[in-house]
């Protein structure tokens, strides 16, 4: 433990908490990253799904 007056210890604790809080805001949670995977493939597959669902709706006469 560092020495000093209680005010200095409180200040050091506050600074440590601030540093910890700042580091915690940058922690990744394991979600999808912005730069992974080809974006064009995602778009093509998404629109393909839309077309397939539309064809299914038309074939079943739901529209």
Automatic annotation (TrEMBL):
Bilayer-spanning residue ranges: 44-62
Keywords: Membrane, Transmembrane, Transmembrane helix
Organism: Streptomyces lividans TK24
Domain of life, source organism: Bacteria
InterPro entries for this protein: SCO1431-like
Protein's recorded name: SCO1431 family membrane protein
Region (Disordered), start-end ranges: 1-38
